[in-house]
User: Fold these one by one.
Assistant:
Number 1:
Amino acid sequence: MSTLNNSKVTVPWCLQAKAENRKIVMLTAYDHLMTKILDETGQVDILLVGDSLGMVIQGKNDTLSVTMDESIYHTSIVARTAKRAMVVADMPFMSFQSTAYDALKNAGRLIKEGGAHAIKLEGGKRVLNQVKAIVNAGIPVMGHLGLTPQSVHAFGGFKVQGKSEYAVQQLISDAIALEDAGVFSIVLEGIPTEAARRITEHLKVPTIGIGAGSYCDGQVLVTYDMLGYSDSGPRFVKKYSLIKSIIQDAVKKYADEVITGDFPTSEYAYNMKIEENISPDIHDNIKSYKQVDPETFDDLF
Ligand code: KIV
């Protein structure tokens, strides 16, 4: 086991991982408790606050409607919670495509207001000016090539990219251009294994694959997908648990016990005597709860 596992993950850490042939583990996170669970394993190197939040948190059909404010909101929760993992915030659709100025301003917000350690944006040569402006401001950038979900309409759906020799050559030159512009890693999504292998071999910065086969320097999945929150999902998602049925079994047991009255037993209740001579001050304090001494509530737990 690597001795680096306890150290905080940084940009140099990621570059060193590639140099030492160690795989990078990345998952998505959007909320406090899931971030805590993932981070406490000490095995998730990068937590991505992906714009996939539009689909898995908000139930939309794609990622396009996610806003800067939503991205900042979720990033701030994840960044506040994670102790070891590097937190990367996704730049939402149209937060960086128009101008380098917009891109820099919005990347800055994800760092200043969201507390992210780095940002990710989709695209190759066409977003180089944006990447350079952000990198020049000292903000680490993760690239994203292949099946970039913000281009879903241009692709005519969520379709595998890089299927022809020409398309692979384009991806390789995009990846090299991104590396030259200063990105510290590149997500490769929805491309053939062989295309990802060739791109990875051309780069000094690590590639992180999702539906891009085993030759990438790391892997990322949407956490809800790999935990099995949903019955369906793309072919590249391996389900490491069947959490949907675990949750539903627990909910059925709870519902049964509520209906039968088996829950709550006295073990789960406050079986205390009602005091008759409680001071009127305490009632006043409870009304304006901000003034209440927290110790008053100790017996709640
Ligand atoms: O938004 C996201 O979660 C992503 C990953 C799937 C790479 O971009």
Number 2:
Amino acid sequence: DWVMRDHVAEAVALIRKQVGDEEVILGLSGGVDSSVAAALIHRAIGDQLTCVFVDHGLLRLNEGDMVMDMFVGKLHAKVIRVDASELFLGKLAGVADPEAKRKIIGSEFVTVFKQEAAKLTSAGAKGAKWLAQGTIYPDVIESGGAKSKKAVTIKSHHNVGGLPEQLGLKLLEPLRDLFKDEVRELGVALGLPPEMVYRHPFPGPGLGVRILGEVKPEYADLLRRADAIFIEELRNFKDEASGKSWYDLTSQAFAVFLPVKSVGVMGDGRTYDYVVALRAVQTSDFMTADWAELPYALLKKVSGRIINEVRGINRVTYDVSSKPPATIEWE
Ligand code: XMP
């Protein structure tokens, strides 16, 4: 629509004016906010933008390739993909505590990102001068209010605060005044595919908090395949009354890996394999959430496919806990 097109033109003009002919670095995660920020800044300044995409090895099935296809293949943006999966999995080996895992993933992420950023800023006068972030209006409010209000940390989130100062970079935040819905509309106006722009949120620590306890490559592999089946079927199944898919009718849905073995039977044989839990919630603010009343036919299809297609998983359960007292993620 023309209002959004106007907004794009205005935002592009503002970025050009701010940045001039200087270089910009942006941390691209594949999430909605950083993706829209990248597309917008790329529209404004093209090759003056370099995106750094740190793949911590805890992304969803084919996610890294999809990010590269979109930003490099379609938008022709400059993206440095850092495959840090061995580093992250190495640091996580033997660590089972959820907060310890979050801290490791968060701090390794900052370390890797800083190393890449340092390469881009070191080119003297030609080096990058700006760090772009996909901060949106609710983030601005949250970090302002957090100090006074939040007494207890339930889960430590990725914290990249202070990064611009540490890198000696100026901060570029073109989405600062926008609400999530506006960010999504902007993304569509910039030509990002709706499936990307309307994707469910995904936590910074990724599958690291969806594999309970110690993270192992084998677990991540099984989880990725189970999760992809769940999401594919949520997109396939339409609710007749609304015509919407169950993916669109839920706010967040994913599989969780339980490192517990249970007995099953397949053909003439006995199996002794891992368990996957499915989680799907409906919420408007993610502070409280109801478990989604998915149709049994959908659950049946998903569990049948996971057990048949993902060798190593022989049992699927559905999580019927609301938040509170449960949280949305299991860790
Ligand atoms: P919980 O599990 O606390 O999650 O009910 C609420 C929402 O926050 C997301 N989440 C995270 N997002 N970094 C993120 O960027 C994190 O460390 C993190 N932990 C939870 C979660 O996916 C849900 O949408």
